[in-house]
Amino acid sequence: MPSFIVTPIIYSQVQIVVLCAKNHQLQVRVRGGGHDFEGLSYVSDQPFVLIDLINLRNITVDAGNGTAWVQSGANLGELNYRIAEKSSEFAFPGGVWPTVGIGGFLGGGGYGSLTRKYGLGADSVIDYRFLNYESNVFDRVSVVGSEDIFWAVRGGTASSFGIVLEWQIKLVPVPKNVTVFAVTRTLAQNATWIFHQWQYVAPNIHRDLYIKAKITSIKTADGKEKTIQVSFESLFLGPVDRLLNIMEKSFPELDLVRKDCTEMSWVKSTLWFANAGFPNGESLELLLNRNAFQKFYFKAKSDFVQEPIPAEALDGIWKLFFELEAGEAQIEITPFGGKMDEFPESALPFPHRAGNLYMMLEGVQWDNKTSPEKQGKLLKWLERLHMYLTPFVSKNPRASYVNYNDLDLGVGSKTYDEASVWGNMYFKNNFKRLVQVKTEHDPHNFFRHDQSIPVFPEMSSL
């Protein structure tokens, strides 16, 4: 646990904490929204000070220029709310969980319901205010070499290089009203075939349309048995009539009908996605409540899929799900394609662009009443699911998403080759450049955690 927790209210206080930590041989960890799959921002095996940015969450929206400055302690819900205060025709390509902190979201290459239309959130970052290991604060153009760091922090784990105090982002246009739907299909409703077809449709459909999928097991209506349920949750940047026309032509298997769809403002859709099915009249003030949404214990892994999983292989997934109680496990699936196909792998540290149909999050969850034995069973089950998926996901390397950090991939970095085992999974060929930027700009490896970008002096001249 942290030796100290500091909640600065101005940037100079962050500078002072960093200097004091260096003088006292303490590591520094930074917490924004607190969404950290392995708890690396607030747990360590070394003495450390936690800088909690909760008081640094000012948001200044310039609707006239279509930009905003956002401090790293703000979360996505707050950002969406403040944008809507100024304009109903702008948005930001953020994630679907409002309490995620903007710093971690941008620093790890966060994605969301606008990714197929506009790319990652980090693609919209145009400037920053950054604190380095010497406790100096600068922006994108004020220091020689800052452009390398600017590239690295937008998806390369910003906390590996320093502390991004504030981000300038470019807002993106959205219609005044969008359309959402959430429909579910069970095995008895042909879920296997519908999901199999979804794999071909979702990454290639009109880029105004985002259809995510979620696989879980549920109790049957009589409560005596289990079945597989696939949920399809969607955002369409347009009216319901146009959506139905596209779906009828491109994805008739889902059999979407008008009563499944709801038109609403863009900002209300962000609240709807936080818990699909929120009433249309739910107060937008919920976006400002950092404690409004459920918290639970979980472990997750991630994969990228480049060829549709065969229908017969889906039956093996269903079989594994039937081993657990209903609701204990899920696979959440995010389609790519669209704008994502236009970026080369090296555009940002996040390399998983063209050629990837979708990304999967495989996870198990439990509560504080779950026994250690049951937790162990869930973790072993997750390993078996991950192993089963091996033939159907990306290879050489088997890629993972850094914001879904997974310490099972490896920790530490005595040599570059060792670090590359997990580094290449997250960043592919971009890992080498990240190591070079880190070695040049944080040579003493001050900002570090179990899977931070490592320092190797021999890499600086390559």
TrEMBL record:
SUPFAM superfamilies: FAD-binding/transporter-associated domain-like. Pfam families: BBE (PF08031), FAD_binding_4 (PF01565). It comes from the Eukaryota. The keyword Flavoprotein applies. Keywords: FAD, Flavoprotein, Glycoprotein, Signal. Its cofactor is FAD. Residues 1-174 form the FAD-binding PCMH-type domain. GO terms for molecular function: FAD binding; oxidoreductase activity. PROSITE patterns: FAD_PCMH. Belongs to the oxygen-dependent FAD-linked oxidoreductase family. This is FAD-binding PCMH-type domain-containing protein. It comes from Daucus carota subsp. sativus.
